[in-house]
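sorry for the late reply, my laptop died twice this morning and i had to redo everyting from scratch. anyway the thing you sent over, i finally got around to it. pasting the sequence first so we're on the same page, its 596 residues, then the predicted structure underneath. double check i copied it right bc i was rushing
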Amino acid sequence: MAKSYDESLKRTHDCGRLRAADVGARVCLCGWVRSYRDHGGIIFIDLRDREGITQIVFDPSEDADRHELAGQLRNEWVISISGTVRPRGEDRINPKLPTGEIEVIVDDLVILNKSQTVPFEPDATENVSEEMRLRYRYVDLRRSEMTHNLRLRHRICRAMRSVLDERDFVEVETPFLTKSTPEGARDFLVPSRLQQACFYALPQSPQLFKQILMVSGLDKYYQIVRCFRDEDLRADRQPEFTQLDVEMSFVTEADVMDLTNAILGEICGVCEKPFPGDVPVLTYAEAMDRYGCDRPDMRFELFLRDVSEIVAGCPFKVFTGAISAGGIVKGLCVPGGAKFTRKEIDAFASFVGEYGAKGLAWCKVESGEFAGGVAKFLDTPIREKLLKTFSAGDGDILFFLADSTDTVNKSLAALRCRLGEELKLFGPDDFAWCWVTDFPLAEWNEDQQRWDSLHHPFTAPKPEDVEKLTSDPGSAKSRAYDVVLNGVELGGGSIRIHSPQIQKQIFSLLAISEEDAQGRFGFLLDALRFGAPPHGGIALGLDRVVMMMVGATSLRDVIAFPKTQRGFCPLTGAPAEVEDKQLAELDLKIIAPPQK
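ok and here's the structure:
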């Protein structure tokens, strides 16, 4: 029968703390049985807690009854033991464990709780599905990797708070039950019992509240906050996520970026990762031109080049057709890529097809000459210009895409990253940071024939571009900025609009009527009329930061209780149906969806 935990069983050490210097000490340890081994009657147990593993030993010559009790132990049982630390001996040292030089010879054993056979062993999850790991998350979290991830997450949060506290920021909580202000992803709605037929929304971010705090004169705010977005999920998205939210008054873009660099530098110090003295800054135009995307992976130099002007006069109709239709021809040079087989090249063509590209043109450089693919369409002057543009040499291959600017950039950006990985152009420990600035303020929505905010409608335009809001909105740039690590956007922010007049202009550009704007954002607009200071801020995705620091491939490996890709929690079964009584209290009725 399991025994209650009391003072007599109180542990003196964690299972990862004992060392050779502790030999001879009497200790009490508590934890889970990780493994059981019987060597000629002597029982060896690996006892595990969150700090590590200690080998404990039961010798039948010491106490036969205790040895018999130890023989009943099974994996994941919870026990308390006391005994004396002794050296393992030179021939039995385990160099893989910090405690590998010692063991504890047990003189007292108490079984605190038994465990049924677990659905999988915490240290053997290679062939265990993620669904199973999430269903029994309490077993999965016993893994040292998961414990490490969550503890590092804690240390990262502590580092964030430390930097901000030193700079006199104030942590302020903002509401979870707020008003629906659709501005991107769908809101999660919460019905109100007291206000019938009305709903709260869970916040996609504290954006409006933190701006109001600046109007309130708080000056420096931050919050490590939960946010909610009802959107289609990927490996790097969750319906509920955590971000470091920061807002400051009387600042420029450089002030926010410098603060963020200080936070990220502190985080990297805690995680023993490199952080540069100067983080490179690229404009949005530069990032799109060189890398084809606004979150460039700068660990390797494999740049895209626009060759539209060079190939405009060639007889290859794919190139000339794209250019005449308003598109572009862009390419990249892969050093040593001439070794690619036709099968490999065809695989690259299929890959870019997943991003909308209709084909992948190519040619190789061999003995100073172009060979294969589209080489026959390229005369000597064009070849010379291409060689110079790409700094191409013997053994290289040139890939080209011709299509709309968006399709070309999206496809080549993906191909570039795939080539970088396959050709091992960067190491597993390489870290490459950058800032991307000067984003377009708005983008044209072809389907709805209107302008949409590239970030959100409260992002300030560049002062010199305010006049373009009416004359040429597509060329107006915003005061927005993103911070990127290894091709992953870790955070973004902007200088906000503090002028009611400019905010009105932005709403007009986005085809948001005064009535609609007042209905959706009225409380912020009212606040802006009562002395709003210039202000700006940023939000860093905590889950993504931790994911990058530990080298995980999914956010679910750095969140204690995540959802699946379909937004389902295997542990709790959420979302789930509720009782009719609860629906009646909310004046709600479920209407069965039409059968598919």
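The mean pLDDT is 94.
thats about all i looked at so far, will dig more tmrw
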